[in-house]
Amino acid sequence: MFTTSLAPPHTPFTAVTWSFGTKNIISSSADGDFTFPEYEGRVTLFSNGSLELRNVALSDTGQYILTILQATGPIVSTTELNVYEPVSNVTVTVNSSDLELVEFNSSVTLSFTVNDRVNITDRGANLTIDTVWRYDQGPFTCEVSNPVSSSTSDPVVLPSAVNGPDDVIVRTSPSDYCEEGSDVLMSCSADSRPAAQFKWFLNGELLSFTGAQFELKNIQMNQSGNYSCQAFNNKTLRYSTSQPASIFVLSKSNTT
Question: What InterPro entries does this protein's entry cite (predicted)?
Answer without folding.
Answer: Ig-like_dom, Ig-like_dom_sf, Ig-like_fold, Ig_sub, Ig_sub2, IgSF_CEA-related
